[in-house]
């Protein structure tokens, strides 16, 4: 395995090689994980050492209140703390290193942009949270992390395409590669 420009993973296969977009692949993995958690009501929470308070505009606070039951299922321990204020006690383990206030605000912005897609609530929440949790392009990965990402991607129900319609990987066979050198 080789990481190209800290964005793609090159993986040899019998017929040639695959070029995997690490962000889109991880987005697919996290999306399916969150959908599973929403359907089976199973998740894990990493408790915050110091709970964080979050102040939101009225419209965002109203939206967050509507989404709290689903977010609790996904491991976000958030409770209302007065008018337009919330306290975050815990986050899903893969998001526990992020600032809770930033995470909540970005989540709400992305969720609102998903509303235009006219998709069901669980799907929209899973997409939005997956975008927050997915590794970004530019992140250096160790060999074992690349291998784990590939293994998890091909364990997905739909490993070929990300939740927003982008390909997770392309493959090039040896015949195609040979033609490029003619």
Which descriptors would you attach to this protein?
182 residues; alpha+beta; four-stranded antiparallel sheet; three-stranded antiparallel sheet; 6 helices; 7 strands; elongated
Structural summary, described in words:
With 182 residues, the protein is an alpha+beta fold. The model has no long low-confidence stretch (mean pLDDT 92). A hairpin with a 3-residue loop joins strand 1 and strand 2. Helix 1 packs across helix 4 and helix 1 packs across helix 5. The strands form two sheets. It has a four-stranded antiparallel beta sheet with strand order 1-2-3-7. It has a three-stranded antiparallel beta sheet with strand order 4-6-5.
Topology summary:
Layout: E1 2-4, E2 8-13, E3 16-21, H1 22-40, E4 45-55, H2 58-73, E5 77-80, E6 85-92, H3 100-115, H4 121-133, H5 143-153, E7 169-173, H6 174-180
Antiparallel strand pairs: 1-2, 2-3, 3-7, 4-6, 5-6
Helix pairs in contact: 1-4, 1-5, 3-4
Order of helices and strands: EEEHEHEEHHHEH
Q: What's the total number of strands?
A: 7
Average pLDDT, rounded to a whole number, is: 92
Beta-strand fraction estimate:
15-25%
Strand order of the largest sheet: 1-2-3-7
Helix content: 40-55%
Shape: elongated
Determine the structural class based on helices, strands and strand pairing.
alpha+beta
Poorly predicted runs are none
Q: Major sheet, described briefly?
A: 4 strands, antiparallel
The end-to-end distance, rounded to whole angstroms, is: 26 Å
Q: Give me the number of helical elements.
A: 6
Q: Tell me the radius of gyration.
A: 19 Å
């Amino acid at each position: 395995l080789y990481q190209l420009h800290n964005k793609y993973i090159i993986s040899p296969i019998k017929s040639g090689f695959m070029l995997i977009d690490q962000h889109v692949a991880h987005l697919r993995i996290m999306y399916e994980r969150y959908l599973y958690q929403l359907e089976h009501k199973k998740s894990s929470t990493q408790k915050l050492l110091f709970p964080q308070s979050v102040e939101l505009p009225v419209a965002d606070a109203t939206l967050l209140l509507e989404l709290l039951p689903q977010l609790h299922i996904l491991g976000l321990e958030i409770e209302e703390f007065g008018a337009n204020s919330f306290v975050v006690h815990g986050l899903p383990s893969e998001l526990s290193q992020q600032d809770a206030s930033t995470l909540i605000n970005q989540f709400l912005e992305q969720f609102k942009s998903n509303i235009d897609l006219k998709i069901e609530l669980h799907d929209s929440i899973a997409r939005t949270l997956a975008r927050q949790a997915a590794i970004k392009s530019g992140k250096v990965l160790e060999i074992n992390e690349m291998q784990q990402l590939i293994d998890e991607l091909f364990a997905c129900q739909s490993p070929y395409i990300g939740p927003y319609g982008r390909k997770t990987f392309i493959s090039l066979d040896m015949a195609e590669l040979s033609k490029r050198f003619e």
